[in-house]
Amino acid sequence: MDAMYVTIDSLPGPESVPRIRTERYVGDDNGVELSDMETDHAELVRRIYALLKDALSTLESGINDADPLWVSQRMKQARFLEKIQHFTRGLTTNGYDEKRRATLRQVFHDLRGGALTVAYSRIQLAEMKGSEVEMSDVYGAFFAVRDHLKIMRNCVVDLDPERRGRDLQRRTHSASLLREKWENYADDHARVEYYSDFDGGLSSSCLEFSTVERAMYNLVTNALSHTADGRVSLFVTVLEPEEPENVKIATANFISEAERTELERSFGGELGRLFEGGFSIGGSGVGLSVTARMVSRAYGLESLRRAVEHGYVGATIRAGEFVAWMHWPVWQD
Q1: Cβ-contact 275, 38 below 8 angstroms
Q2: CA-based nearest residue to 241, from 8, 5, 55
Q3: Are 247 and 326 a contacting pair, CB within 8 Å?
Q4: The overall pTM is greater than 0.85
Q5: Residue 1 confidence (pLDDT) above 90
Q6: What is the tens place of the pLDDT at every residue in 180-224?
Q7: Which of 77, 123, 206, 236 has an alpha carbon within 20 to 30 A of 311's alpha carbon?
Q8: How far apart are CA 62 and CA 74, in angstroms?
């Protein structure tokens, strides 16, 4: 396993993905309200949000003062990792009726995981480094915490109405923001190798960008949790170089022989069905179905099955690497 076999020029998936939807999809229908949750769950969500806001302030101060050791010590004193573990452990759908459970499973999954998983890993790594902590660790944690605050406002529409209102305002976000946070990413478990030929417009607002990132973080964290050699390749490439219309975001990681056997036994040559939910190795199977749901809505597809069948999302194994991908329409202001 000396090199990754999949390259940006050999990614699987279709060469074009027709967009049926005419208006831009920003993800404003993705969330629930606090009143949809039990009182104790709503309080946990508020406490996670408040904790992350405090963490963002600490990280920002550390960046301004170029003092990574102070940040690490401050986060440890605040018991950030311990509190996050405690709060997220309580977000379960036990006790909800079937209809609400189906909706809240996806929301709670993304509130507990996604960018928060990355933030936790970066802050944990910073603590482990002790006096050797670096500014790159602080920047990595900052980006992840900031992302998760946006994702939380995406998931829970009335969590912070004022900031969500600002998230909805027209503002182009480019794919270069992905390069900023994923290039040279590493935690105590794995590292990401970022490859991209596109830094153009990807979303029309903060809210849409948080929708893209909800979908993307589920791809990346899935790859990080299953990599067999501590490496993940992350690709961002445009399908139409001359006149960009669609971007493909893909991950590639080597998997163990046991995982490969289990995937092939369960799905044969139809690994894309992972995006339809209900199956995962060591997980709930919710994450990739969230990705498929958002991609489906962005392109105006009527079902996750159609998204899988036509390659808007997909997965395959090539030379020992598990490759998963999604697409998103380019934004041109």
Answers
A1: no
A2: 8
A3: no
A4: yes
A5: no
A6: 999 989 888 899 999 999 999 999 999 999 999 999 999 999 999
A7: 206
A8: 10
